[in-house]
Amino acid sequence: MEPIVTHFTDTDLYKLTMCCAILNCFPRAVVKYQFVDRNNTVYPQGFAEELKQQVKYLEDLRFTREEEEFMKQRCYYLPTWFYTYLRGFRYDANWVEISQDAEGHLHVDFEGYWHQTVLLEVQILAIISQLHHTMTGNLAKVDMADYYDLTYRKARRMLEGGLVVTDFGLRRRLSFESEDVAVKAFIDASKDVETGKFVGTSNVYLAMKYNVTPVGTMAHEWIAGIAGMFGPQEANNIAMDMWQKTYIGSLGIFLYDTFGFKAFADNFSEHFARVFAGLRIDSGDELEQVEKIQNKYRELGVDYRTKQIIFSNALDTDRALDIHRRVKDRCIDSYGIGTHITCDTYGWGFKPMNIVIKLVAIKITEKREFNDTCKMSEDLGKYTGKPETVELFKKLLHIN
Prior knowledge:
With 400 residues, this protein is α/β, with parallel strands linked by helices. The chain has helices at 13-25, 47-57, 65-74, 80-88, 114-117, 121-135, 138-141, 144-160, 176-192, 204-210, 220-230, 235-247, 261-267, 270-275, 286-299, 317-327, 339-342, 387-396; strands spanning 30-37, 96-100, 106-113, 164-167, 197-201, 213-214, 253-255, 278-281, 308-311, 332-337, 355-363, 371-372. Helices cover 46% and strands 15% of the residues.
């Protein structure tokens, strides 16, 4: 099979911005990641071997001059030295272990320096998703002209409803082409509709192709990794401090729910409330989360109406429009929409994948022992990590 990922920047921007922050703050940290299939999928025979070949193909990727020039124009907050690092970056398939058990379940783990392995996650997830849909015959069922029309209609509804929208769908896309088509559909719809706004895409390569803004800040692994090194009690505090010192006020949307709202709120000072432009809601009931956020801003003496809230919790068109109607006068709201844009396959008789790769252990230097970490969020179904680690963190954070 031909390579699925053929461009270095066919990845989410937050992988690159985290890579830069990790190099700046924790250059010797070593990590372990683990793949989780929430649907317990049985993969086709031979899937693991095909995946190994696709990971091997990643070794051929190079950060091009065109990509560098685009990022320098659009990602002004990244320091010049980081581009020197990216020009010399090379993937190594030896970082990744892949196997398939007798029942057909897939096992993927990788280990290495954090600043290197951080760039693997999104691309491997995209590969797994497209490879699965290819080997099962699902991808062949989808006509991309029809997919464009479907996405264009969604885009018009969202924009006519006043939504500010970003494509967050790379990780579990049907294919590279489906995300490409979806971004094009949103761009075309934004030209035809006067309300709403299509901000851009998390996919840096497609942002370059269509000359739109690449969007992203951080993932849960930034906070989870810090928690593994220093404990969960002050993890959000350290994460915000290190992020602010790296980007000096830019990229100011903080993902707060790694260990639930209370753990974050205990670390959220007036300083951080003023320095960060806003927060991203990625779990829990959105309206309840908005209420908690606004109460915290109020407690800190900050006008919440001046702050951004990004909604990104498995949204579809109807849900995003409903949330916007309820919160549009209470905050500066926008919507990161993923699988609903890039892998809407229900009309073709199959479902998107429900897969993640999470950081599960870390050590601050290669000479230390690994400490386990986890992600808890506001949804029990999104907990990842060893049960005993989750229970330890809950005890440390006084969570029942």
